[in-house]
Write a sequence for this structure.
């Protein structure tokens, strides 16, 4: 079959990989040149530990407190936007303890499928500095410690039995080269990480050798639909006919879904990162600073990445450097000896994560269009779940039984 993939991020590339292995003719379309999308600037985590969805009662309550703080880790830009209002209403309705509990097993399952796929890629010779050494979630407050210990038990109950609480002294033994202000940390030995830039570059090279066709700087506008099937897609360069279509356009997926007559609510959640080979802070393990909502990743022996914030905003809103300063301030609170000047704007990466209304991705077919598979809405877990999502997309296209129950990710659930 001829398959069109709309989106050249890690979800799109992973889907292209598995579909090409299955013998399909694959073409990838992207409105950019594919060199700097959201799959490049993230923290590189491949993390079964992230089984708590973005939509939680705590984030809604904290988000309201942070609403007017431009340096806060979670920020919603106030604006009159009906799509944002509808998305926000559904998000708040989803943010319940029951939803958090129901989301844990599906997020664990797809993360484990994805991690196994990445490990297979690594063994096959794909060069992306894959390391399975674990991750630390570091806390500073009494409330943070209490919540962390509850999370440890939840992880163990989910079968992630190599999860443990570390006291401050135990934590110091994992990072003896730095001074920390912390009460302790969760050690998620189940987690891995990689260098996202190397992953994307290596994947592109492999896919080209496999015969995947790329249409860079060719954004999809809409499609011709007949009898509940997409007969062709129209781009800014022409029209193309395909047997199957995969919608994996990240934070632009909601807009494209509308062009196909669908409602798949996705809101852009902007994040920022700084990558430096001259970091004043060197770590052995990737770390999340819980109260600061900041992620730190040692990408190789000399390169560190500092990333964070979730800024619900439009694609056209200029970047806010005060939010980058907020990342550096948070690092300083955990590592008192840390000193780093605010970089110049051109040294800061930012990208738009695709946020669904309930914190779970949309993966599956829609009832309205029989030859469309949706694969988007992964929020901050795009890279972590990328390889697994691509594998599931391949199974859906070939009408195989998926490796997991995809009902929690049904794209039609948000209608």
């Amino acid at each position: 079959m001829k398959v069109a993939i709309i989106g050249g991020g890690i979800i799109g590339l992973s889907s292209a990989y598995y579909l090409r292995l299955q013998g399909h003719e694959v073409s990838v379309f992207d409105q950019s040149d594919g060199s700097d999308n959201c799959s490049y600037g993230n923290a590189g985590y491949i993390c079964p530990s992230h089984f708590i969805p973005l939509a939680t009662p705590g984030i809604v309550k904290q988000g309201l407190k942070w609403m007017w703080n431009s340096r806060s880790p979670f920020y919603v830009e106030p604006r009159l936007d009906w799509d944002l209002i509808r998305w926000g209403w559904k998000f708040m309705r989803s943010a319940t303890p029951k939803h958090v509990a129901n989301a844990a097993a599906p997020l664990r399952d797809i993360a484990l499928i994805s991690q196994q796929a990445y490990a297979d890629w690594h063994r096959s010779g794909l060069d992306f500095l894959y390391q399975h050494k674990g991750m630390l979630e570091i806390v500073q407050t009494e409330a943070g410690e209490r919540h962390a210990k509850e999370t440890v038990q939840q992880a163990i109950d989910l079968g992630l039995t190599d999860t443990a609480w570390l006291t401050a002294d135990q934590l110091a033994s994992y990072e003896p080269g730095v001074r920390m202000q912390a009460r302790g940390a969760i050690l998620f030995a189940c987690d891995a990480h990689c260098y996202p830039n190397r992953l994307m570059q290596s994947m592109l090279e492999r896919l080209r050798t496999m015969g995947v066709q790329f249409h860079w700087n060719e954004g999809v506008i809409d499609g011709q639909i007949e009898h509940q099937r997409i007969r062709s897609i129209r781009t800014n360069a022409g029209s193309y006919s395909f047997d199957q279509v995969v919608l994996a356009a990240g934070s632009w997926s909601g807009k494209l879904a509308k062009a196909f007559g669908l409602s798949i609510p996705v809101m852009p959640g902007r994040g920022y990162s700084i990558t430096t080979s001259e970091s004043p802070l060197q770590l052995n393990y990737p770390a999340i600073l819980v109260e600061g909502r900041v992620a730190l990743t040692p990408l190789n022996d000399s390169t560190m990445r500092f990333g964070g914030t979730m800024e619900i905003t439009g694609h056209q809103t200029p970047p806010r450097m005060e939010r980058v300063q907020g990342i550096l301030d948070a690092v300083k609170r955990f590592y008192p000896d840390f000193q780093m000047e605010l970089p110049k704007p051109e040294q800061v990466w930012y990208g738009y994560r695709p946020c669904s209304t309930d914190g779970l991705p949309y993966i599956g077919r829609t009832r309205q269009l029989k030859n469309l598979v949706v694969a988007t809405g992964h929020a901050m877990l795009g890279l972590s779940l990328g390889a697994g999502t691509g594998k599931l997309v391949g199974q859906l296209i070939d009408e195989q039984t998926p490796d997991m129950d995809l009902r929690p990710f049904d794209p039609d659930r948000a209608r």
Q: What stands out?
A: The chain has a mean pLDDT of 93. The radius of gyration is 21 Å.
